[in-house]
Design brief:
The protein has helices at about 10-20, 30-50, 50-55, 70-85, 220-230, 250-260, 280-290, 320-340; strands at about 90-95, 100-105, 110-120, 130-140, 160-165, 170-175, 180-185, 190-195, 210, 240-245, 260-265, 295, 315-320. A hairpin with a 4-residue loop joins β6 and β7. The strands form two sheets. The protein has an eight-stranded mixed beta sheet with strand order 2-1-3-4-5-6-7-8, sandwiched between helices. A five-stranded mixed beta sheet has the order 10-9-11-13-12, with helices on both faces. It is α+β, with helices and mostly antiparallel strands. α1 runs antiparallel to α2 (about 30-50), α2 (about 30-50) packs antiparallel against α4 (about 70-85) and α5 (about 220-230) packs across α8. The protein binds 2,5-anhydro-1,6-di-O-phosphono-D-mannitol and magnesium ion. The site of 2,5-anhydro-1,6-di-O-phosphono-D-mannitol has 12 residues, from β3.
């Protein structure tokens, strides 16, 4: 469910208009969002021509001109980090592509940004949708004024903004600053993101479930039974549901936002804590989904209330339409009690 704008507004205009509603705003968060928008346009351009410029290759390979090329995910990482570095507002970046924290030139900058520069990397080589994810926190004041990794270990409820860019059949950027979700579509002919949906809302219930069923045998009993419930025929509740799984979280989440349903990446034998990362995959997409009226839990607890212990930690996730997520949680709770 979306709310279509009645006139053409670019991402930059929209961000400035939103900022003007808060007279005391410094404009720094607006600048940060515009920096991410600019990097997204550059990444989108490279994603679209990746096949011809050899960006699909590994680090150290050469393109047809004999120039050395970077992998697309490293390229995306560099574009986003240098865009954030230029405006001197962000003090620290944590990215899936870097083991430790990345200190930027502006040590005094007031924002900390988490990035998954190019999510869905296994889909890069097969021309399937991929995405970038970002999550923004304020730096908390410290008595010694030093900048340390612990400054970044804040629960998702403290995010001041979060969003994603989906490089699909068109490039879409969606973000929230805690006042609903806005989405923009890139018009490549003018190189601008144009507001396509203001105040995005997820359907309360959806008929699609999304999970990698290859790990079925090692799931919790409650999850096995919930997925069977999704598959049982019951026309009154729209079952059997449809199964859809792209393998790029951003793409699976965008579909869930538009059409409703549930996306799950559970704990399994291979991934005892789930595969997806709390800080730069689950928290930002949970903020988007909650702002759109949905729910995101780890099976029991709200994802955004988890106190992180490390910057790259993983967490199981059940996310999507509120009715679907609540139903999945009921199955998990009921059969966990029976297993205990
Ligand atoms: P990545 O960050 O290495 O790309 O991994 C994250 C991706 C998600 O986008 C997606 O939901 C998941 O991995 C798919 O994993 P699997 O192939 O195990 O189903
Ligand atoms: Mg990822």
């Amino acid at each position: 469910m979306t709310s279509k704008p009645d006139k053409l507004i670019t991402l930059d205009e929209y961000i400035i208009q939103a900022q003007n509603k808060f007279p005391g705003a410094t404009g720094e968060l607006s600048q940060l969002l515009r920096d991410i928008g600019l990097a997204a346009k550059i990444i989108s351009r490279e994603v679209n021509k990746a096949g011809i410029t050899n960006l699909l290759g590994s680090d150290g390979s050469s393109n047809i001109h004999g120039e050395s090329v970077k992998r697309l995910d490293l390229f995306a990482d560099q574009q986003l980090i240098s865009a954030l570095d230029r405006s001197m507002i962000t003090c620290m970046v944590i990215s899936e592509e870097n083991d430790g924290i990345v200190r930027l030139n502006s040590e005094g900058g007031k924002y900390i940004v988490y990035l998954d520069p190019l999510d869905g990397s296994s889909n890069i080589d097969v021309n399937v949708s991929i995405g970038s994810i970002f999550s923004i926190y304020m730096r908390q004041p410290r008595f010694d004024k030093k900048l340390v990794e612990e400054d970044a270990l804040q629960p998702g409820t403290r995010q001041v903004a979060a969003g994603y860019v989906l490089y699909g059949s068109s490039t879409i950027m969606a973000y929230t600053t805690g006042l609903g979700v806005s989405a923009f579509t890139l018009d490549p002919s003018i190189g601008e993101f144009i507001l396509s949906d203001d105040d995005f809302k997820i359907p309360k219930h959806g008929n699609i479930y999304s999970i990698n069923e290859g790990s079925y045998n090692s799931w919790a009993d409650g999850l096995k039974r919930y997925i069977k419930y999704c598959q049982v025929e019951d026309p009154d509740t729209g079952r059997p549901y449809t199964s859809r799984y792209i393998g790029s979280m951003v793409a699976d989440l965008h579909r869930t936002l538009v059409k409703g349903g549930i996306f799950i990446y559970p704990a399994s034998k291979r991934y005892p804590n789930g595969k997806l990362r709390l800080m730069y995959e689950c928290n930002p997409l949970s903020m988007i989904i909650e702002q759109a009226g949905g729910k995101a839990i780890d099976g029991e607890k709200r994802i955004m209330e988890i106190q992180p212990e490390s910057i790259h930690e993983r967490v199981p996730i059940y996310i999507g339409s509120p009715d679907n997520v609540s139903m999945a949680a009921e199955f998990l709770a009921k059969y966990a009690m029976q297993e205990a």
